[in-house]
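Researcher: Let's do a round of design. I'm pasting the structure tokens now; please hold your answer until I've finished.
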């Protein structure tokens, strides 16, 4: 059977398994994060090479603040250094950086660096790279509900007129839209509070590979799996095929 689907335009990744990768080697968990961080550049490059237009990476969830403080500090430090290290590549490759999540909870130095990189890359027209940091899908939906409720209270919008598009427009991912493909590494098969609204029709791809081992060829395999699937969006197979032409 030939493939039904084009290369995914928007790929989201839950970069999981850093801790277990390190523990299996008798090393501290933070060593896994260091190795995981080093993987990010290769995967961004490969996504770009494969014609992916938007890449959204789950770098730190709201729940991750509950980890041991040393681990949180290391992750923040890694993010900070990564932002500095990638500036040049971002500008050379015209990558546009955005962030979603409670950025105001980040340490000031990280927030400042992130804001600078976002500002610096704002006119870039290449790969649209979004980092989810201190992110929670439920939190995001709660905030959207609050904003819409405020508009109703202000008389700008009738409650009965609230439609899906109002939600979609208010989401932090509005500039890049919904992911076509979600990849989660490390063998876990759940979405862990990531992009809850946005993933209604996302194709899911789970691999046992731990994030520090996830190579460009693994990304190609995930994309290849996606291109062999038929996305039906609730239609019949025949309707979906007809809708493509
Ligand atoms: C999950 O592994 C990974 C994280 C919580 C952090 C992901 C962060 C990076 C890959 C580095 C920083 C990212 C960027 C974009 C610079 P885990 O610790 O939950 O692993 P485990 O499930 O094996 O414990």
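Researcher: That's everything. Go ahead.
Model: Designed sequence:
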């Amino acid at each position: 059977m030939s493939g039904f689907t084009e290369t995914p335009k928007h790929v989201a990744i839950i970069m999981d398994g850093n801790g277990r990768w390190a523990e299996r080697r008798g090393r501290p968990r933070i060593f896994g994060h260091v190795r995981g961080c080093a993987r990010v550049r290769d995967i961004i490059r490969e996504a770009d090479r494969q014609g992916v237009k938007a890449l959204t990476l789950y770098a730190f969830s709201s729940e991750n603040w509950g980890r041991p403080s040393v681990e949180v500090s290391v992750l923040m430090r890694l993010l900070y250094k990564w932002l500095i290290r990638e500036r040049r590549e971002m500008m050379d490759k015209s990558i546009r950086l955005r962030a979603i999540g409670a950025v105001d909870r980040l340490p000031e130095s990280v927030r400042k660096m992130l804001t600078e990189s976002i500002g610096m890359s704002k006119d870039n027209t290449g790969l649209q790279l979004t980092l989810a940091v201190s992110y929670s899908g439920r939190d995001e939906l709660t905030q959207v509900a609050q904003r819409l409720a405020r508009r109703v209270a202000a008389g700008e919008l009738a409650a009965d007129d609230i439609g899906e598009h109002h939600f979609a427009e208010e989401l932090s991912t509005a500039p890049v839209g919904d992911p076509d493909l979600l990849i989660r590494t490390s063998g876990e098969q759940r979405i862990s509070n990531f992009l809850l609204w946005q993933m209604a029709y996302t194709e899911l791809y789970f691999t046992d590979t731990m994030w520090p081992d996830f190579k460009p060829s693994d990304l190609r395999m995930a994309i290849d799996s996606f291109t062999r699937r038929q996305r039906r969006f609730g239609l019949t197979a025949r309707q979906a095929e007809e809708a493509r032409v």
